[in-house]
């Protein structure tokens, strides 16, 4: 089972460039999220989705866009990259809301992004 | 606003020791709490999930406890092995879909 797959694994961008980080899951999970991990800050929620067509902002949404056209995919778009967006990005999914009984979050392997 | 703290930030112990990792949270009205393991350059692997109605959960050599009244969770690792070396993260569920993470404890098991 592939689980949660993120591409690319590494990326270097110039300031002002745009790109899309891909996230796909093959577990038919309704709930998907994007986090960024920074030294000294831990992981912080960027955006999340509770199903196809439904997205919402997390703690640090500025500079990022998301959409959810299918259950499987939840891409994260950087419209104009800035050095402050240098980070490791993780996508996660769960079958039901995390506050539900016995619901775990499953994470991808991450995308390491450097903006120069 | 939920805040999660993990102390110590780093821990080094000899192989074979039993050890405890600590996680504290500020809002006792949590739903669930999840412990993860992260190897260098890798993603997060779920270790244990403790539901708010539970006091502890066990998987192999791992045992996690939850005390909502004191705002604490602990991860107990029995008979530690070099392969247990990694960063351990705890995360509390806030709202419907937000994981609030601690900054992790970097564990090194010395052969």
What does this structure look like?
The complex is a heterodimer of chains A (116) and B (111). Chain A has no helices and eleven strands. Chain A is mostly beta strands. In chain A, the strands form two sheets. In chain A, strands 2, 4, 5, 6, 9, 10 and 11 form a seven-stranded mixed β-sheet that branches. Chain B is mainly beta. Helix content of chain B is 0%, strand content 59%. Chain B is built from no helices and eleven strands. Chain B starts with a strand and ends with a strand. The interface between A and B is medium-sized, with 32 and 25 residues.
Tell me, rounded to a whole number, the average pLDDT of chain B.
93
Largest interface comes to: A-B, 32 and 25 residues
Largest sheet of chain B: 6 strands, mixed
- How many strands, which pairing sense, and closed or not: the largest β-sheet of chain A? 7 strands, mixed
User: What is the averaged pLDDT score of chain A?
Assistant: 93
- By DSSP (H or I, 4+ residues per run), the number of helices of chain A equals 0
Instruction: Assign a percent range to the helix content of chain B.
Output: under 10%
Tell me the strand percentage band of chain B.
Answer: over 45%
Ranges of chain A where pLDDT stays below 50 over 5 or more residues in a row are: none
Topology as H/E string of chain A? EEEEEEEEEEE
Give unreliable regions of chain B as ranges: none
Helix content of chain A: under 10%
* Cα separation of the termini of chain A: 36 Å
Radius of gyration of chain A: 13 Å
Q: What form of chain A results from the Cα inertia axes? A: globular
Q: SS-based structural class of chain A? A: mainly beta
Q: Tell me the structural class of chain B.
A: mainly beta
Computed Rg of chain B:
13 Å
Q: Got a strand count of chain A?
A: 11
Rounded to the nearest angstrom, the distance between the terminal CA atoms of chain B is: 41 Å
């Amino acid at each position: 089972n592939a689980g949660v797959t993120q591409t690319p694994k590494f990326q270097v961008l110039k300031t002002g460039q745009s790109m899309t980080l891909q996230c796909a899951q093959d577990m038919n999970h309704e709930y998907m999220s994007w986090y960024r991990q920074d030294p000294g800050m831990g992981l912080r929620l960027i955006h999340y989705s509770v199903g196809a067509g439904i997205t919402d902002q997390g703690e640090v949404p500025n500079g990022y866009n998301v959409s959810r056209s299918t259950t499987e995919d939840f891409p994260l778009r950087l419209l104009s990259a800035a050095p402050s967006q240098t980070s490791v990005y993780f996508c996660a999914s769960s079958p039901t809301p995390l506050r539900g009984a016995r619901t775990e979050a499953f994470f991808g392997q991450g995308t390491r992004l450097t903006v120069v | 606003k939920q805040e999660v703290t993990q102390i110590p930030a780093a821990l080094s112990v000899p192989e074979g020791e039993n050890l405890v990792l600590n996680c504290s949270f500020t809002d006792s009205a949590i739903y669930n709490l999840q412990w993860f393991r992260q190897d260098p350059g890798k993603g997060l692997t779920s270790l244990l999930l403790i539901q708010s109605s539970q006091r502890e959960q066990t998987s192999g050599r791992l045992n996690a406890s939850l005390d909502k009244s004191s705002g604490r969770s602990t991860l107990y690792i029995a008979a530690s092995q070099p392969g247990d070396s990694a960063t351990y993260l705890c995360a509390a569920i806030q709202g419907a879909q937000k994981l609030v993470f601690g900054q992790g404890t970097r564990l090194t098991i010395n052969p």
